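Final report, closing paragraph on structural work. Over the funding period we assembled a curated collection of sequence-structure pairs, and we close with a single example.
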Amino acid sequence: MADSDDATDPARIDEARRDEALMAQVARGDEAAFRQLTRRHLPAMVGLARRVLGNAADAEDVAQEAMLRVWTHAPHWQPLAAFRTWLTRIVVNLCLDRKRRKPWVALDAAGEIVDPTPGIPEIAERNEREHALTAAIAELPDRQRTAILLTYSEGMSNAQVAEALDTSVSAVETLLIRGKKSLRAKLGAMIDGDEDQ
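Its predicted structure, as stored:
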């Protein structure tokens, strides 16, 4: 799987420069810059935490704790990696720490959510596939699940995922291969349309 070439994407470069400028202001105690940085990144970080944790309330807590860490660590932050990558790494680590502290509850224990409105058969089928995929992803080991989510839900390159997980690109590729192999074993033909390993 090839890494996307974010280093030459002008929009990404501009976004990274804005984040660096805001972080420089936050490091000097600029609350307005911190609020702007929070508005730019908090929704995505809540979404990421929700997908990793599977719990909306915990996801909000994790994302807010991550932003608090941005505020407190801003004076020491060095732009060795893109701000978004650094923030993603904080969120992933907080999620993994939280998952270690709390016992994992299987999705089957939550019961099925029934939609009271009548739906089109195709929508019901799609929802069933998404539910099965979500359940299968939730059963993956933490690092495989996180690598799959960062790559396919967040659209991050293997290099960015490696930075977020504090590992090598080859380790990320291995996590993705193993994760997809497990998903194929559980879901069979449902995911055969996905890209090859």
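The longest helix spans residues 31-53. The radius of gyration is 18 Å. We thank the funder for supporting this effort.
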